[in-house]
Q: What sequence folds into this?
């Protein structure tokens, strides 16, 4: 199975900050990577796939980049509703797998 | 409203069985591949199973293969997960999720999630 390692596991930031989260795959997955946001008490929601395309309705302050084994999710200017846990997911090979999550907390 | 609503979770003893259901509304259920994904605080998000739009193809994670069965009733817009011989490691919140792919096949991107149903396997 493809292992995904996210860093950092947790990050503290303030409204207006720029935040970057990294996801590293254990082997080349091309651009077959998605990002999800999970707010407290809610199910995950799709943000980006594959790698850099925003899902419908996702604000433009979110962006994704990368290919191969290294990927990033960037939030250009944090908003209060962005404090959540973020997961990457690879869809290159079966079974699909998720990263362990990055918790974005209010500083 | 476009939504998925899971039900059927609960407390069960090791070796027991449960049947989860997921009722879909607000979209043409029969058009989309559907999946089950589970989540625990310790292991995070974990893929469980997949069924194509017409029910002709199913897939399972190795951890549940031979114990879980995914099925669907397109006339009722409902997805199911029959879970037999449950282990303590199966304790999790189970999410019903919709694939972005229309028609047969998989994109493996999940654009609609239910709120989840909690399964606890304990003696």
A:
């Amino acid at each position: 199975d493809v292992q995904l390692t996210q860093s950092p596991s947790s990050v503290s930031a303030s409204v207006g900050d720029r935040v970057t989260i990294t996801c590293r795959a254990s082997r080349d997955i091309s651009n077959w990577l998605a990002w999800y946001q999970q707010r407290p008490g809610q199910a995950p929601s799709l943000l980006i796939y594959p790698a850099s395309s925003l899902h419908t309705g996702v604000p433009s302050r979110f962006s994704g980049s990368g290919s191969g084994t290294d990927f990033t999710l960037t939030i250009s200017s944090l908003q209060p509703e962005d404090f959540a846990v973020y997961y990457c997911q690879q869809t290159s090979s079966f079974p699909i797998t998720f990263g362990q999550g990055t918790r974005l907390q209010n500083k | 409203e476009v939504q998925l609503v899971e039900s059927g979770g609960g407390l069960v003893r090791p070796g027991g069985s449960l049947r989860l259901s997921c009722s879909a509304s607000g979209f043409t259920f029969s058009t989309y591949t559907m999946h089950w994904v589970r989540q625990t605080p310790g292991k995070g998000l974990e893929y469980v199973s997949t069924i194509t739009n017409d029910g002709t193809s199913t897939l399972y994670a190795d951890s549940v293969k031979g114990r879980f069965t995914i099925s669907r009733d397109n006339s009722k817009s409902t997805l199911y997960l029959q879970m037999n011989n449950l282990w303590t490691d199966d304790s999790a919140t189970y999410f019903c999720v919709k694939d972005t792919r229309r028609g047969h096949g998989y994109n493996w991107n999940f654009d609609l999630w239910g709120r989840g149903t909690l399964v606890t396997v304990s003696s």
Q: What stands out?
A: The longest strand of chain B covers residues 92-102. Chain B is about 0% helix and 55% strand.
